[in-house]
Amino acid sequence: MKKSLTLLAVALLCVSCAPAGTTTTAPAASGTASPAASAPVSLSADSGPQAPGGTIPATIGITWDQASKDKAVDVAGKAMTDFARPGVEETQWANDLARWLTPQATADYSAVDPATIPASRVTGPATLSVDDANGFGVTAAVPTNAGTFAVQLLRTDTDAPWKVNRLTPPPS
User: Fold this and answer.
1) 86 phi/psi in degrees, rounded to 5
2) Distance between CA 32 and CA 97 in Å, rounded?
3) How many Å apart are CA 142 and CA 126, to the nearest integer?
4) Are strands 147-154 and 163-168 parallel, antiparallel or unpaired?
5) Integer angstrom CA distances of residue 18 from 5, 11, 13, 26
6) Backbone phi, then psi, for 153, in 5-degree steps?
7) How far, in Å, are 80, 136, 159 from residue 165 at the CA level?
8) Which DSSP string corresponds to the chain?
9) What pLDDT, in 10s, does the model give residues 71-112?
């Protein structure tokens, strides 16, 4: 308790000694040019520059190869196979599916009742929609007896495993 109070007192002392920030803006000098950008500007979603002189950013080190595509197709199919089992007990279903999921997806799908899943089997191989500029993510279309599910897969590096982030049912 004494240590906590001491730390709190030190933190308050440091905050009270810090210089106060200003909330007013300095008046602009007349006849001076605006400062140059210190870094290249990024592009908007339409690939148009957000500011004049923008350049398209390069991909971030992960390129697509056939092995990456094959692994993504494999994970999408296996994850959908584990997902499309409405007759399996909830705990077993969640545990089987979790091995394919990102941490966020594991949390999201932990409350799903498998009995509510419309698909009960995968009916064909997954196909990918690859964005060559994004080696970190891909969407796979996986056909089932209830229609084609979209399976979003993510990875953190070239050698990292693909993980499913979202399984989206077909539009009804």
Assistant:
1) -65, -15
2) 62
3) 4
4) antiparallel
5) 20, 11, 9, 21
6) -115, 145
7) 12, 12, 18
8) -HHHHHHHHHHHHHHHHSPPPP-SPPPPPTTPPPPPPSSPPPB-TTS-BSSTT--PPPP-S----HHHHHHHHHHHHHHHHHHS-TTS-HHHHHHHHHTTB-HHHHHHHTT--GGG-S---B-S--EEE--TT-SSEEEEEEEEBTEEEEEEEE-SSTTSPPEEEEEEPPP-
9) 999 999 999 999 999 999 999 999 999 999 999 999 999 999
The angle at the Cα of 14, spanning 12 to 16, to the nearest 5 degrees, equals 70
CA distance 90 to 67: 33
Q: Using an 8 Å Cβ cutoff, are 72 and 86 in contact? A: no
Largest CA distance in the chain: 75
For the question of whether the overall pTM of this predicted structure is more than 0.85, the answer is no
Q: What is the CA radius of gyration of the chain?
A: 25
